[in-house]
Specification:
With 292 residues, the chain is mostly helical. 38% of the residues lie in helices and 5% in strands. Helix 4 runs parallel beside helix 10 and helix 8 packs antiparallel against helix 9.
C-alpha cells in the first residue's frame, strides 16, 4: 500500500504492483509505503478520506500468472505449497484448489485449516503472500472464487465513489488517468511518472503463453462461475488469440526446492505436510505385511 497526499494505491497481487509502487516512490516526494500487500482495512483512520486507486486483471489470466510465478524456485509461498499438495499437483488441480478454497466442503476446509496453521497472526513485517490466519475464516464465509475474494479484501467497497480501478491490460494509460482523477497534475510530477514508465521494465513477471492455452472447458467454466462478480463488473471475457506462438509449459516445482526455513504445521520438525485427515492407510499396511 502506497500513501500520497492525494490518494492511496492498493498493491493487488499480480497486477503490476511492484512496478507501480517503484514508480510512485521514485517520482512523488510525498509517496510512502505503509505496508506490503496491505488491504484497505489496514489504512490508518486518519487517511480514510483519501481516494483509493487499484488495478484489476482478467481472472483467467490472473490464475495463470499466479501459478507460473509461484513455480519459480526462489518464491516462498505457503499458499502455493499447500494447494499444490506439496508441489505434486499440476496447474489444473492446483488452481482448482485455489479457486474453491472458500467453499464449504471437507477438502477446502482442510486446506484452510492447514493454511491457518502456517500463516502469521498479522501482516506486520510481511513481504510476501499478504495473508494472515484470520483470512482463512473470512475466505470460508465468502462463498466466492479466490480472486474475487482477494480483490474485494484488498480494495474494500468497490461501489465507493472515491474508489477508482484501472485495468492491468492497459496499465500505463489507466494508471496515469487514475492519478489525474485523484488530482495529480503535471506540476505534481505526473510527467515524471509518465517518463519513468518508459524507463522501468516490468517487475516480478512470469513466463507463460496466452492464458487460454492452459484451460480446459471445466476449469474455464469454474472461473466463470466463481469469479463472476469481477468478470461482470469489469467486462472481462475468455479470449482466444488468432495466432499462437510456441507453447510455454507451466512446469511443476519439486518439493526439494522448498525453502529450508518453511514453518511446518504446528512447528513440528518434520519433512512433510499433513494436508488431509481421516485417511485409510490399511492398503499401505497390507503391502508392508507382505515385505520380509
Amino acid at each position: 500500500m502506497i500513501v500520497a497526499d492525494k490518494f492511496v494505491y492498493i498493491h493487488m497481487h499480480k497486477t503490476g504492483g511492484q512496478t507501480l509502487s517503484q514508480i510512485l516512490l521514485s517520482c512523488l516526494p510525498d509517496a510512502r509505503e505503509v505496508g506490503y500487500h496491505y488491504p484497505i482495512s489496514l489504512l490508518p483512520v486518519s487517511l480514510s478520506a483519501l481516494p483509493v486507486i487499484g488495478m484489476v486483471r482478467n481472472p483467467w489470466d490472473w490464475y495463470v500468472s499466479w501459478y507460473a510465478f509461484n513455480t519459480r524456485p526462489e518464491i516462498k509461498n505457503p499458499v502455493f505449497l499447500i494447494l499444490s499438495d506439496g508441489y505434486q499437483s499440476d496447474f489444473k488441480q492446483t488452481v482448482t484448489n485455489l479457486i474453491t478454497l472458500g467453499e464449504d466442503n471437507d477438502r477446502s476446509r482442510q486446506y484452510r485449516r492447514a493454511l491457518a496453521d502456517v500463516l502469521p497472526d498479522n501482516l506486520q513485517g510481511n513481504m510476501g503472500v499478504g495473508l494472515s490466519k484470520s483470512c482463512m475464516t473470512t475466505l470460508g464465509q465468502s462463498g466466492k472464487g479466490y480472486f474475487t475474494w482477494l480483490f474485494k479484501r484488498m480494495h474494500g467497497n468497490l461501489d465507493r465513489p472515491s474508489t477508482h480501478i484501472g485495468r492491468f491490460e492497459s496499465l500505463e494509460k489507466d494508471f496515469l488517468t487514475l492519478l489525474q482523477v485523484c488530482g495529480v497534475e503535471a506540476q505534481d510530477n505526473l510527467e515524471s511518472v509518465r517518463q519513468r514508465f518508459a524507463e522501468t521494465p516490468p517487475r516480478n513477471t512470469s513466463s507463460h503463453s496466452h492464458y487460454s492455452r492452459y484451460y480446459d472447458d471445466t476449469l474455464r467454466e469454474l472461473v466463470a462461475t466463481r469469479d463472476a462478480d469481477i468478470i461482470e463488473r469489469y467486462g472481462y471475457t475468455f479470449d482466444t488469440p488468432d495466432t499462437h506462438g510456441p507453447m510455454v509449459a507451466l512446469n511443476r516445482r519439486r518439493f526439494d526446492e522448498a525453502t529450508d526455513n518453511f514453518v511446518k504445521m504446528g512447528g513440528e520438525p518434520v519433512n512433510y505436510l499433513r494436508l488431509h485427515e481421516g485417511l485409510d492407510v490399511t492398503p499401505i499396511l497390507d503391502v508392508l505385511d507382505t515385505i520380509d
